[in-house]
Amino acid sequence: MKVLVIGSGGREHAIVRQFHQSPSVTEVFAVPGNDGMNEEATCVALSPLDFSALVQLVKREKITFTFVGPEQPLSEGIVDYFEAEGLSIFGPTQAAAELEGSKAYAKDVMQRYGIPTAFYEVFDEVEPALVYIKKHGAPIVIKADGLAAGKGVVVAMTEAEAEEAVRSMLDGQRFGDASARIVIEEFLEGEEFSLLAFVHDGHIIPMPIAQDHKRAYDGDLGPNTGGMGAYCPVPHLPDGLAETALESIVSKTVQAMTEEGRPFTGILYAGLIATNEGPKVIEFNTRFGDPETQVVLPKLQNDFGRLIVDLLEGERPEVKWDNLSHVGVVVAAEGYPDEPVKGQLLPDLHKLSGVSVFHAGTVRDGDAESDRYRGSGGRLLVVSAAAESHEAASDLAYAALSSVDWPSCFYRKDIGWRARK
């Protein structure tokens, strides 16, 4: 079979690689892809939002199915467009993707169906929002309602920080239309973790839980980012936590979306927190996370292409995962997440032994003879290692990273530190 992957980041590189390694898949296409995928996929320079051109590509190349990586095409209705053309695609419809596209909608669904989450209110004007903050105090969480590339959340530790966040979102349009409306919610104490699942026709296949690090610097300090690294599994979390979350949150959400008239197909990502009252929802995504994908998906032992086809055809395949620990570290450009440096020549990545490299913000060096890369974004790549224990996987990843120089780059030195405590 032939597969098309929509997207260009590290998450999509992991998806492309998993399909490339699938015995049933003969060819992988990526739109637009990135230079690091070229040996595993045919990259096609189209916009992920040019649905008409994508449909023409699928029909011309006789592609079996399409797998959508990023949130924007889902929120703009790529699944509906493809299905209207009679094409097979794995992802939620535009209506179902609102579970990620609108935090206010997601919170309303959770409230209606008794899915545990932080208490909240929704605002589109500054003054009522400030009154609410004054009433509840800090710490408190302010979120842009719409899509903001994973950066639309401010965890305000003081009322002054909260007020600044509210004004910059509602008055200053910090995130454009995405922050024309905001959600203000209770600050929850506990440890965060991610539970992802394949979903189709009410059938749920959970993946092993993962944990990522959002803060830019060691010790979970600095600004929030799209994620500076991740690891899977998460050995120090209590036994039974994943099962409880699956039952009380994921299953109830899938059922709720069906009852809402928005049945869910695709990847449901539950960003959760383990509180004293049990797991609660921080946010939902309607696609794979980044960088969690780079440590969760390589654990899959099934033929990935066959698995997706089986799900789309209504089968309920048995899924197997490896018993290894996977640790992935993001290498980012200096200045990320605000103003990342671009154009720096990266080290020879072939010298990184015993690890996997997933490209995100990189481009081939301009020299035609070169197999080196330059930075072209904020998060450049993920270096991931797998081993029998978390400590061994972490040691492998960091040994590889420290074996070369990373000019105008940085990475956290403590990914997975909670698992070492």
UniProtKB/TrEMBL annotation:
Cofactor: Mg(2+); Mn(2+)
Keywords: ATP-binding, Ligase, Nucleotide-binding, Purine biosynthesis
GO molecular function, one term: phosphoribosylamine-glycine ligase activity
The protein's Enzyme Commission number: 6.3.4.13
Domain ATP-grasp: 107-313
Nucleotide-binding found in the keyword field: yes
Record-linked InterPro entries: ATP-grasp, ATP_grasp_subdomain_1, PreATP-grasp_dom_sf, PRibGlycinamid_synth_ATP-grasp, PRibGlycinamide_synth, PRibGlycinamide_synth_C-dom, PRibGlycinamide_synth_C_sf, PRibGlycinamide_synth_CS
Top EC class for this record: ligase
Pathway of action: Purine metabolism; IMP biosynthesis via de novo pathway; N(1)-(5-phospho-D-ribosyl)glycinamide from 5-phospho-alpha-D-ribose 1-diphosphate: step 2/2
Gene3D superfamilies per UniProt: 3.40.50.20, ATP-grasp fold, A domain, ATP-grasp fold, B domain, Phosphoribosylglycinamide synthetase, C-terminal domain
Keyword Nucleotide-binding (UniProt): yes
Reaction(s) the record says it catalyses: 5-phospho-beta-D-ribosylamine + glycine + ATP = N(1)-(5-phospho-beta-D-ribosyl)glycinamide + ADP + phosphate + H(+)
NCBIfam families: purD (TIGR00877)
Family: Belongs to the GARS family.
Protein name: Phosphoribosylamine--glycine ligase
Species of origin: Chryseomicrobium palamuruense
